[in-house]
Amino acid sequence: MSVTAARPAAILGGPGETLTEGEVDAFVRRSLETAGLDGRSVCVIVPDATRSCPLPLLLKAVHTALTGRVSKLTILVALGTHAEMTESQLAAHLGGPYPGVTVLNHEWWKEDTFVDLGTISAERVGEISNGLLHKAADVKLNRAVVEHDVALVVGPVFPHEVVGFSGGNKYFFPGVAGQEVIDLSHWLGALITSASIIGTPGNTPVRTLIDEAAALIPSDKLALSVVAQSGTNALHAIAFGDTISSWQAAAAVSAETHIRYLDKPVRRVVSLMPSRYQDIWTAAKGFYKVEPIVADGGEVIIYSPLVTELAAMHPEIEQIGYHCRDYILGHWDQYRDAHWGVLAHSTHLRGAGTWDPVNGERCRVDVTLATGIPEDVVRRANLGYLDPTGFDVTQYENDPDTLVIPNAGEILHRLR
Asked: Mean pLDDT, the chain, as a whole number?
C-alpha cells in the first residue's frame, strides 16, 4: 500500500493566528488517519531541545493516531552533531510515556549508525552550487529511517543560516545524516555566507542539495511541519504533506512570522540567549539572526552566562577560532583537512569580512561573548570578551544605539 499525502499540503492556521491544543490534536489525528499508514512501520524524526516546539502535544497526537494501526513506531531524535540527550532530558522533551514506542538518539558518533544510500556526483554538486563546489557527496543516513516503511518528520520551521529556512528534508540532512553530507552542505552554505542565505525563501542551493539526498531515501517521506511562536508552546500553523510540500507551506508562514524588519541599522545588538542553547555552537544563532541589521563597524554581544564552552561536541573550534570566509579560503592548506561543518560554523559566527596577505583579516562586525567561557579561550578564538558578572542589561536598554533582544536565536532581523 502506498502512502497518500495531500498535494499541496494541508495547512491549519497562518500568520498572526494562534492554534488551540484541540485544533492541533484534531489536525494531526485527521491527517495521519487518512495517510494510508495501516500495517506499516513508521519512524518519527523530531528535533532536539534547541528549537521552540510543543513536541509533547504533537507526539501525543501522533501516538494516539497510530497506535494499534501501524506495525512499528519509533521516535528518532535528530541531533545532527549536537550532544546526546539523556533519558531525563528525553522524557521532558518528548512528553509521554509512549507505550510500545522505541525512542532513539541519533548516534552520529557511531559508524554502525549509518547506511550508505549512494552518491551525488561532483558534477551535479557543481551544478547545484553554481560552481562553488566540485566534490562528490557521499549520502549516509541513520539506518532506523530506511528500516521503516515511512519516515514522518515532526518539527518546526524557522529562518536558518545554512539552508534558508529549516524543516522538511533538513531533518534528514543534517538531522540524522552522516558526517560527509553534513560537512559538504554546511560548507556550501558558508561559501554563499549566512547573511546571504538566511531567511531566503524557496530552493537555495543547500536546500536543493539536501532534497536530492533525500530523494535517495527508500522510505516514504511525510511531514507535520509547524510554525511555532518563538519561546512558547503555541503554534501559529501546522502543515501536513510530503516533506517538500509540507515544508513549503510552513516556510511561507514562517517568512511572515519569524522575520522582523528595521528601517535603519543599529550600532550594537545584545542577544539575550535562552537556556536551550548550552554552548556557542548553538547559541551562535544570537549572531546569525541579527547580523543583517548591524551597521559596519558595529557589535553583537551574545549574553549567556550559563554557557561555559564554545562547542561541547566540537572542541577543535578552540584551535581553529572564528574567522570570516575569506580568511579560511586564504589559509585553505591549513584548514582543508578539518571538518568542513566546523569551518562553516567558524565563518557563520564571525560573519562578513575580507582577508588578504597585506591587510590581514577585516571583519565587518565585532562579536563579543558575555558568557561563562574563560577570557583566554574567548580571545584565542578571535572573539571579544565581556565579564558576565558585571553585565548590566539596563545600561544597553537605555542606549538609543543598542537593540536588546530577549529570547534571541529564532527571530531573524533584517533591514527593509
From this structure: 96
Strand pairing class (101-105; 114-120) = unpaired
Residue 30: Cβ-neighbour burial (10 angstroms; 0-12, 13-18, 19+):
middle
Residues 319 and 335: beta-carbon distance below 8 Å: no
Q: Tell me the three cell numbers of residue 324.
A: 570570516
Contacts of 110 (CB under 8 A, 6+ apart): none
Mean pLDDT of 187-197: 97
CB 224 within 8 A of CB 58: yes
pTM for the structure as a whole: 0.95
- CA neighbor of 230 nearest in space, from 56, 406, 403, 410: 410
- CATH of the domain spanning 10-257: 3.40.50.11440
| Residue ranges per structural domain of the chain | 10-257, 262-415
pLDDT of residue 232: 85
CATH 3.90.226.30: does it fit domain 262-415? yes
